[in-house]
Amino acid sequence: MDLFVLASEADSEASINAFVIAGAILAVWAVIVALLGMRGFPRNRGGERIAIAITGVLFVGAVGSAIADQSKVGERRGPEIDKPGEGPESPEPGKPTEQASGGKEAPGGGAEPGPKDEGEQKGESGKPTALALTADPSGATKFDKTTLTANAGQVTITMTNPSPVPHNVALRGNGVDEKGDVVQGDGKSSVEATLEPGLSYQFYCSVPGHEQSGMRGTLNVE
Known about the structure:
alpha/beta, Immunoglobulin-like, 2 domains, 5-stranded mixed beta sheet, 3-stranded mixed beta sheet, rod-shaped
């Protein structure tokens, strides 16, 4: 990498020197032509053409060396001479860019994992869990879910009943027996209990005949 940088700098200096030399020659030639022109030079059409040709060659050489120098500047700014970890996305020179994982850098290298995604039905450990159910809006005796999952601890199940048929939500199993209010027309029925880890409970509608018709499900506690 150092050799490449030195070579690029050498090429740049050569281009700049060529531009300076070509520009200096063009300037000297312009002064000479101006002085000779004061004495009636050129005296014929052939001399005039020669003077124009020389001026054109010097002008093209100066412009060409200037373009070459700009090209070298663009190459020096290319990614091949960037140092590792010093790309345009780095907030500070010499500081590596942040990892795409979004985690923080852990001591000794690597990235710490981000927050663990919990299911929509799970709460954080030690905190109350709120679960939601909806009765079939057509009036059929069924919930929109037949399985729920929660962390151990305080758990609340809230059922919304958008149908004209009265329903409620109830919970039983392992010493728990709770029943919510019977509601209809977008009413809400809730039950709350403290549940143990590793056990399963049953939620259901306690309106006579509804559980037997299929309005029930299983709540697993982790």
